[in-house]
Specification:
This protein is of the alpha/beta class. It has 3 domains: 60 residues, DNA Methylphosphotriester Repair Domain (3-Layer(aba) Sandwich), CATH 3.40.10.10; 92 residues, Arc Repressor Mutant, subunit A, CATH 1.10.10.60; 168 residues, Winged helix-like DNA-binding domain superfamily/Winged helix DNA-binding domain (Arc Repressor Mutant, subunit A). It is elongated. It contains 15 helices and 10 strands. Strand 5 and strand 6 form a beta hairpin. 46% of the residues lie in helices and 13% in strands. One of its GO terms (biological process) is methylation.
């Protein structure tokens, strides 16, 4: 063991070193894990041991505060959050935060913080996400959307159409079943671009770094559809997209086949009305559509047709760039190109 590195871990209470060594304090006769929250000991009194057994063989007893011979407090909390996830997954009706906390043995506020830290979601959001996953799994095999909804734990189908979803439940049920998609991929100023189309128009325009990534994203959205690469057949459409990227004033003007909920379609139609070289704030669109900025942001994030449905032209309340499905650097570059073309047009 590197004594200097071990001491640094003790000073930083670095939980990443828990289980890799313990340290003992000669003046107290106890040994601790590196993340022990107790007051830092004098370096001259500290020794390092490979494991609790070695520390006890040297005559030291375990710290009652950090319990170095068992699971760490962090590991114990990890286990409790995992148990909470299992309870949420198994429950037909998701329990309230108070009910869940009582089952787990933590206070509601402690459980909420620990759950959000480890999963990135609140318990309620976790339960809803899992219910949506069950719905997605049930839809292809169910006789109807209602049957799938009941199987997933919904009381009916109303909530499915009220929520923000990338596709309607009926379309999700089929996952593109019966549709034939053609797609083409080409290099572009933003990396690579994939254009996919049905007989009705462009259904996806995706940006990425490599072809495998783009094809995987297309497959996830249209897993049951027949997908055929057709670089030659879509060459003209793809060329018009590349022209718009290079010369933003030259819009591609392609027909669109947008797959989304009624609310998402309203948002996407509003996006197509934002002129090149201009931006709108989420709040402005929310006021226009009598909605909430967060709902607008979710609809923008679910847009699968980049550039042609210009969600990159929506910015934060303070004018900051905000997020972008295909990466903020691409959004910044699109806005830069459109802004430069707009200024050139005014000068001309």
């Amino acid at each position: 063991m590197d004594a200097d590195r071990c001491w640094q871990a003790v000073c930083e209470r670095d939980a990443n070193f828990d289980g890799r060594f313990v340290f003992s304090v000669r003046s107290t006769g106890i040994y601790c894990r590196p993340s022990c929250p107790a007051r830092r000991p004098n370096r001259a009194n500290v020794q390092f041991h490979a494991d609790p057994g070695a520390a006890e063989a040297a005559g030291f007893r375990p710290c009652k505060r950090c319990s170095p011979q068992g699971a760490s407090p962090k590991e114990q909390l990890d286990a409790l959050v995992a148990a909470a996830c299992e309870l949420l997954d198994a429950a037909g009706k998701p329990p309230t935060l108070g009910e869940l906390a009582a089952r787990i043995g933590l206070s509601p506020s402690h459980l909420a913080r620990a759950f959000k830290t480890r999963t990135g979601l609140t318990p309620r959001a976790w339960a809803e996400a899992r219910r949506q996953q069950r719905l997605a799994a049930a839809l292809p095999q169910s006789r109807s959307v209602l049957d799938a909804a009941l199987e997933a734990g919904y009381s009916g189908t109303r909530a499915l159409y009220e929520g923000a979803s990338s596709v309607s439940p009926a379309r999700l049920r089929q996952k593109g079943a019966g549709e034939r998609l053609r797609y083409a991929i080409a290099p572009c100023p933003l990396g690579r671009v994939l254009l996919a189309a049905t007989d009705r128009g462009v259904c996806a325009l995706l940006f990425g770094d490599d072809e495998a990534q783009l094809e995987n994203e297309l497959e996830q959205r249209f897993s049951a559809a027949e997908r055929l690469r057709d670089d030659d057949g879509l060459g003209d459409w793809l060329g018009r997209v590349l022209t718009q990227l290079d010369e933003p004033a030259q819009t591609a003007g392609l027909p669109l086949d947008l797959h989304g909920s009624a609310f998402q379609l309203r948002v996407w139609r509003a996006l197509t009305g934002i002129p090149s070289g201009q931006t709108r704030r989420y709040g402005e669109l929310a006021e226009q559509l009598r909605s909430h900025p967060r709902a607008i942001a979710r609809a923008c994030a679910s847009n699968a047709v980049g550039l042609l449905v210009p969600c990159h032209r929506v910015v934060g309340a303070d004018g900051s760039t905000g997020g972008y499905r295909w990466g903020v650097p691409r959004k910044v570059e699109l806005l830069r190109r459109e802004g430069a073309a707009s200024r050139d047009g005014e000068d001309g």
